[in-house]
What we know:
Layout: E1 2-8, H1 16-26, E2 32-38, H2 44-48, E3 56-61, E4 75-76, H3 78-83, E5 88-92, E6 95-99, H4 102-112, E7 119-123, H5 127-138, E8 143-147, H6 151-161, E9 164-165, E10 178-181, E11 206-209, H7 218-225, E12 229-231, H8 233-249, H9 255-266
Parallel strand pairs: 1-2, 1-3, 4-6, 7-8, 7-10, 8-9, 10-11, 11-12
Antiparallel strand pairs: 3-5, 5-6
Helix pairs in contact: 4-5, 4-8
Bound molecules: 2'-monophosphoadenosine-5'-diphosphate.
Amino acid sequence: MQLYGVIGHPISHSLSPVLHNWAFKKFGYKDKVYIAWDITPKNLEKFLHNLDIFQVKGLSVTIPHKQNILSFAQKISPLAQKIQAANTLVYHKGIWLAENTDVYGFIQPLQQLNIKLQKALILGAGGASLAVIYGLKKLKIEEIYISNRTISKARQLAKNLGLKEISWEDKEKLRPDILINTTPLGMSGKWQNKTPWNADLKGIKVVYDIIYNPNPTLLLKQAKKFNCTTISGLEMFIYQAQQQFKLFTGQTFSFYEAFNYLNINTF
Ligand code: ATR
């Protein structure tokens, strides 16, 4: 048996085991299994140093380990190095490689759209916003604004990465071509009935919420009322897993098959 899995804390909400095990079955890998490990920051090092005993060959890495994992890897991809965060560890030719597939996951749904986007507004300046910022830069979006409840964090990112900042109170005055939510507002649990946007969405072409549970979020429901094109976190989630699965096995599963499978079996 070869083991794969996702490590994070908390981890019970993760859809990764359902998706990766579906894909293993689809490609006939009877010797590969994917599980969820709830690993606290305190236990991370101990866990990582025992991977070989259990024949672990690949890991998805999520909150709060995306940055700390870099010090464990023997090789870090240029992208993960640039962002200083990885969501994938893969054992290849005797070494552990750290990679970031979140940027790919974020970009893919946007590349499918045939909409010219020049001005973007990112809500939130936490860990998840970094892959979004690099994704938008890769797409050559000219003007990128960032807004955060705690303005100092937005200011810091704006300064370091050449973005513009706008205060949390004034952000609704801006009319970007694309609005992206990276805050937990709208996520299932205590944030479910919340939205990070307290105004109409007139003139905004695309609204992208990186939350995947619930699907759609309150923000995306609002956006549909204003005829904006919407992208859900489920799309980003599936694409990041698609690239991860390719790193694990060399195989590529179909986005649409995965999307249908998750929609039927999890929501
Ligand atoms: P992640 O890795 O998911 O980005 P994080 O690093 O904890 O998680 O960042 C969460 C982001 O959501 C932050 O930008 C946070 O704003 P603060 O910097 O002010 O904490 C934002 N956020 C969390 N709860 C929020 C709320 N109730 N209203 C507005 N923003 C919120």
